[in-house]
Specification:
five-stranded mixed β-barrel; six-stranded parallel sheet; Rossmann fold; DUF3866 domain-containing protein; DUF3866; 24% strand; 10 helices; alpha/beta; 2 domains; OB fold (Dihydrolipoamide Acetyltransferase, E2P); 19 strands
Length: 350
């Protein structure tokens, strides 16, 4: 399906440095909120006719309920660089990558034994990980490496905006087809090399919001974590892998430990470190532990008995995943806080 509709801008809701949120009334009487990207388009005004991609909202997909305004007249953005994003589409554009700026940095075989790499399968994992690490270990440097498993435009992530504004993350790097990070790299490996050059202690590889899932065994975009993990280990790194747990997820395949996490653990051809929180609910903990204990022949499973409750209390009100708050799915976030506690212990031992 592909749907483009004409409409009239009825209200300007909010304008940031990179996009504009407006209300649009369409010719068929439908009303929706649309995003206008200011790096590829001019600002729109009330009463102006616009052409809008409404496909995702019609399909009720997880795009935040937004439509997207298409460029409507001649426009030029003189950004530097020759590496194309959205290649071979009508909206392809170029970015300046770190590989173009400093090719010598990337012209060697890397060794990742001096940086802790966390590979996430969901974007909502970033907030608890980064906040806890920065609160627990003062002075560390964290890079976030965002790939194309979910949405592509990093500036649409409210979590990233919060983390950067409050200094819970030091560097934001986009790679693959993702764009609009502070820095651009071609792939996750070069993003890690660049993170090392910036003196980072921890690099967190994550998708942006909106990963694809189909309910089938391999039909989810975060399955690419298998290849990323293998590459990191191939070049001397150790990967910490936070499993996706939930007690209140309505979909059975994601309850307790998500089948996405288990598929990655099953098929990755190397070892990862899996912290598990010693949950207060011992029945829940026993189910999680029993499942992960089956993976000990390949992976390192470590129980985290305690986390800093003051950090959890201070920030739990801003946590959200899949529309669920901390109170509605606390196990998901406690597992991530425990992962950060595990990483903080590794950092302190160095």
């Amino acid at each position: 399906m592909f749907e483009i509709k004409k409409g009239i801008v009825t209200r300007n809701l909010n304008t940031t440095g990179y996009c504009q949120y407006v209300e649009v009334k369409y010719q068929d009487g439908d009303v929706g909120i649309a995003i206008n990207f200011l790096d590829i388009n001019h600002e729109v005004k009330e009463g102006q006719e616009v052409l809008v991609n409404t496909t995702a909202r019609v399909l009720q997909l997880g795009t935040g309920g937004y439509d997207y305004i298409l460029p409507f007249e001649a426009f030029k953005n003189l950004s530097k660089g020759h590496i194309m994003k959205l290649r071979y589409t009508p909206l392809q554009f170029s970015v300046l990558t770190e590989e173009e700026k400093n090719p010598d940095l990337f012209d060697k075989v890397p060794n990742f034994n001096d940086i802790i790499v966390i590979v996430c399968e969901l974007h909502s994992m970033l907030l608890p990980l980064c906040i806890y690490l920065k609160e627990k270990v003062k002075g560390i440097k964290i890079s976030v490496i965002l790939n194309d498993w979910g949405m592509l435009n990093a500036k649409l992530s409210h979590n990233l905006e919060f983390l950067k504004e409050n200094k819970f993350v030091d560097y934001i790097i986009t790679c693959q087809e993702a764009f609009n990070g502070e820095f651009e790299c071609i792939n996750e490996i070069n993003s890690l090399i660049f993170s090392q050059s910036l003196g980072c202690d921890v690099a967190i590889i994550s998708p942006l919001p909106g990963i694809v899932g189909t309910g089938t065994k391999f039909g989810f975009t975060s399955y690419k974590a298998v290849h990323v993990i293998e590459d990191v280990v191939r070049f001397g790194g150790r990967v910490v892998f936070p499993v996706r747990v939930s007690k209140n997820e309505k979909r059975q395949r994601h309850r307790f430990i998500s089948h996405h996490s288990l598929t990655i653990l099953n098929y990755v051809n190397c070892s990862v470190e899996i912290p598990i929180f010693d949950f207060e609910d011992k029945i829940f903990f026993a189910k999680i532990y029993k499942t992960l204990n089956n993976y000990r022949a390949k992976h390192i499973v470590a129980v985290v008995n305690e986390i800093d409750k003051m950090i959890v209390e201070k920030y739990k009100s801003i946590m959200s995943t899949m529309g669920r708050s901390y109170e509605q799915d606390c196990e998901y976030f406690l597992e991530l806080f425990a992962t950060a506690e595990y990483v903080s212990t590794k950092l302190k031992r160095r």
